[in-house]
Amino acid sequence: xxxxxxxxxxxxxxxxxxxxxxxxxxxxxxxxxxxxxxxxxxxxxxxxxxxxxxxxxxxxxxxxxxxxxxxxxxxxxxxxxxxxxxxxxxxxxxxxxxxxxxxxxxxxxxxxxxxxxxxxxxxxxxxxxxxxxxxxxxxxxxxxxxxxxxxxxxxxxxxxxxxxxxxxxxxxxxxxxxxxxxxxxxxxxxxxxxxxxxxxxxxxxxxxxxxxxxxxxxxxxxxxxxxxxxxxxxxxxxxxxxxxxxxxxxxxxxxxxxxxxxxxxxxxxxxxxxxxxxxxxxxxxxxxxxxxxxxxxxxxxxxxxxxxxxxxxxxxxxxxxxxxxxxxxxxxxxxxxxxxxxxxxxxxxxxxxxxxxxxxxxxxxxxxxxxxxxxxxxxxxxxxxxxxxxxxxxxxxxxxxxxxxxxxxxxxxxxxxxxxxxxxxxxxxxxxxxxxxxxxxxxxxxxxxxxxxxxxxxxxxxxxxxxxxxxxxxxxxxxxxxxxxxxxxxxxxxxxxxxxxxxxxxxxxxxxx
Length: 513
Known about the structure:
alpha/beta
């Protein structure tokens, strides 16, 4: 082989290797290879076919007409490409105008054109994965044999490149499927709706929500004021088949007795003084969806009777009308009242209680789930940072101590109000105990950083600074001391010692009771 041909082959291999390295798409790689062969070797046409079961499928071609591309599926053993793929031996036809069999299979050229055809197998790991075929102006047999061997090298180089990209694509698709599967699992085991909390009682609550949500069972949510009963009701709705249907709420304690029935079932024009037009009630408006009756314990006795009938029959009548209206509505009720005591006192109907209490859910008070206080506080900090344009990033340890020590009679609602005030009054990126409402303040002097800085010695200041660093890291790592030690570049022995002398309790940050 003369120096010119050697240099040309080196240039071709260099261009192909560059294309293989920089191109990620399989078809673009093959197309680049065929383009280089066309420019450098003077090919008329070329195809690269890959084995797919018992057929050869043309993946990329150069110079083929659309009608020929559509016929580019060959059963192995039919035509030259199939014979090459089966035998694993390269084939060189000096003049395809004389090869009627190949001409009939591909419709290659007119009979008066003299074109050489070379087809080589593409082999990877001793297995034939496809064929590379080219047509070029006819030449002497020695040159065609050299071209055939060179194409074998290019074919195998293409095989490795294609295999590597296929493996990358398969891995990518596998990761995407795993990601989708994990997202689905996280959604199924995560917190439903907008509920926040990771303690045992809240996880049990989430499980109850998932159990009852897909059904049409009536749910009675019980819990103190401010615990988030409406959020639970909405979480049930979001996981139910009615999630895209109306979600109508009615606070039974917010309306006087003479209006509650009209609000619930509606009225006709002129049915009572002030009824100047027909009004559709909440039960009718929620048709096909969910009706949430908050503070059901405050419902008037007369309205309790009509609600009971609606629960039993799924029908009602507007005030001033005898027409029976049916409504496919799921009922979710909530109360902070002691319904059992109300029943004993004759304030609440026992039969209505049984109808509502099909699936009871109890929301724990915030004082019973203290490990969620910090999680909730951080959520509210993010919420009010966005609302008020603040940049509060953390809560100091003394302020955290106050949050944990307080009894929270107003539950999560009170905590939210407290954090909103703290964000508003915070002058830097850290909420101090002085930013908390007076109801949370303690007489202990160490719990106010500003007083501490004025009156404490160096040792106390350092201890409180270390306490803040360690608790921040524990909070970030959910109480994991080993992870906190790695983050702070401390040995396990040192962090255990510091946690002991600083009276830090990692379990408060673990999300467990």
